[in-house]
Amino acid sequence: MPRPLSIIIVEPDRDRALLIVDSLRSAGDFDIQVIAEPTSLARQIQARQPDMVLIDIENPSRDMLEELALASGPQDRAVAMFVDRSAEGLSVAAIEAGVSAYVVDGLQPGRIKPVLDAAITRFRMFQRMRTELAETKRALEERKVIDRAKGMLMKARGVGEDEAYALLRKAAMDQGKRVADVAQALVTAAGLLG
Amino acid sequence: MNATTLSVGFIPLVDAAPLIIAQEMGFAAEEGISLDLRRAPSWSSLRDMLSYGKVEAAHMLSPVPVATALGLGGAGAPLSAVSVLSVNGNVIGVSQALADRLRGAGHRFAFDDARAAGLALIAAAGRGLRIGVPFPFSMHAELVYYWLSALGLPAPQSVVVRTVPPPLMGDAIRAGEIDAFCVGEPWGSQAVEDGMGELLLPGSAIWAFAPEKVLAMRADWAEAEDMLRGRLIRAVWRAGRWLADPSSRSLAAEILARPGYLDLPSDILDRSLSGRLVVSGRGEERSVPGFLTFHRSAASFPWRSQAEWIGLQLAARTGLDRAAAKAAAARVFRSDLHRAALSGLTASLPTAASRIEGGVSQPTAVPAEAGRLILDRDRFFDGRIFDPDAA
Predict the structure, then answer these.
(1) What is the ipTM of this complex?
(2) Other C-beta atoms within 10 Å of B212: how many?
(3) Measured between alpha carbons, how far is A141 from A136 in angstroms, rounded to an integer?
């Protein structure tokens, strides 16, 4: 029985880190550590000698890990970005999911795969959550703008809320635009006119 | 006409200007292309986006494609540098504590003498000096290694060069992780603004004509897409020429300052564009001619000898075979593709593809394909030259 793979996860957000750890644990028996602090990241990793390092592609500290590829001291183990040359395209899938893996030199691909599969699934979920959050924020912003435009129309034309919205919708349809865009134009123009 | 859209990755730095300006000022549209500019979170991510085809071209540290060709870092997809986007533009800064010690020892922060500044730094910080650079494969790292080892501080025995992403450089100084840094603008000026330290030297004081960023593409894409490649090279070259006009400067700073690009006050960006840098918290200003060059002296031309110099420096540090590294590096800087794209324009390009680096001590006319070409001073601070045929 080989000893469990040692994996370091670089993730400043505690909740996210826990979710990643959970996913990996369900994929096998691993020795997992989390590093949250970017200070001297490369040296922290060197000191712990992991088999694998996982980091979010959006994390600017990632550049520090590139130094590990140059580790050339007698005790250092060279760690390089994981590049698979198999047909499965794990690297591409990982990049698309937003996770990057650094793997110690000479580790068998068969031992990496379950870890990466689990990480990729988890990071895809993060990505979906990020997209949804951005979408929700945008929708909220648009509703605020439409409400402001409605309010301006109600005041300027002395109409009710429903009628103000109908005016906006008609203008949008006539111009082939979205209601939110017409509302934004109205709010901007009103801002300029003072 | 429907413009073909090319996705191009960049890191938010002043020297991404040729790409941003190519899109914003219509030089891309003139060539029938549109640039979808994508801001990347780190150099390693940008390199991977390029390697895996998420972007078609990228703003890239000049040593990265060379390092990739040498098998150092990355996914190994061969990359080509088809233009140099910018020459020089880095600064070396020291922590406030170290700056105070340097002043105490009589250093005047003249900002023009790499030997004097280096010797003063070594005397004040001594062995074990720790310097932060943005990436292991960067002109920043190369300049620091070259400068300090020429002055008797070889790495890693007597100086530690560490990778610290520029946004985290301030934290690293406050945490006592590093004593000094070499970064591209606006990070040097931002460091002064934040009271994090003082600027000691511009990169150009170490090497007067250092290729800083390149326009990189996947080698197979560059070969296959000769039309698009040519259009992009021309659009970016025209943007560089526009940027070189002093009257473009304030507009350029305004455009770069926008939230989608650098998202910083334009007056900070103007410092590097004008070469007038504020070097200390007391507002002392230093003027550096050629601080950041986009166009003069055939700046966009990717000299094979530049790639060979980088390749040999990397090989010496990592113990790779010199001859093989030099040959592999030479294939990365595609002066042939650059020349082909600009033929028929008014570009003054050299007839040679290689030159003696560090050999021009005053502006010198050289044989050019069209018009006149004056090469600016390109000296190394210690007067050494790099003759690629003799190396």
Answers:
(1) 0.89
(2) 25
(3) 9
- Cβ distance B198 to B94 under 8 Å? yes
Size of interface A-B (CB pairs under 8 A): 76
Q: What does the block give as tokens for B232?
A: 């992009």
Locate the chain B residue with the closest alpha carbon to A80. Answer: B73
Tokens of B7: 């996705």
Q: Are strands B373-375 and B364-366 parallel, antiparallel or unpaired?
A: antiparallel
Q: Residue A61: beta bridge partners?
A: none
Q: Are B184 and B140 in contact (CB under 8 A)?
A: yes
Instruction: Answer yes or no: are the C-beta atoms of B276 and B190 closer than 8 Å.
Output: no
Rounded CA separation B234/B342 (Å): 6
Tell me whether residues A59 and B42 touch, CB distance under 8 A: yes
pTM of this structure: 0.90
Angle at B87 between CA B128 and CA B366, to 5 degrees: 125
CA-closest candidate to residue A153, choices A143, A163, A141, A142: A163
What are the CA-CA distances from residue B235 to residues A100, B4, B242 (Å)? 33, 13, 11
Span B328-365, pLDDT tens digits: 999 999 999 999 999 988 778 999 999 999 999 999 99
Q: Which two structure tokens, joined as six digits, stand for A163?
A: 């009628």
B156: number of Cβ within 10 Å: 11
For tokens 């990480």, what's the residue? A119
Residues of A in contact with B73 (CB under 8 A): 66, 69, 80-81
Q: Locate tokens 């509302």: which residue?
A: A183
Mean pLDDT score across all residues of chain A: 88
Test A39 with B73 for CB contact under 8 angstroms.
no
Beta partners for residue B234, in sequence order: none
Peptide bond into B186 cis (omega under 30): yes
Q: Minimal CA–CA distance to B190: which of B222, B208, B210, B168?
A: B168
CB neighbour list of residue B315: distance below 8 Å, 6 or more residues apart: B70, B321, B322, B325, B326
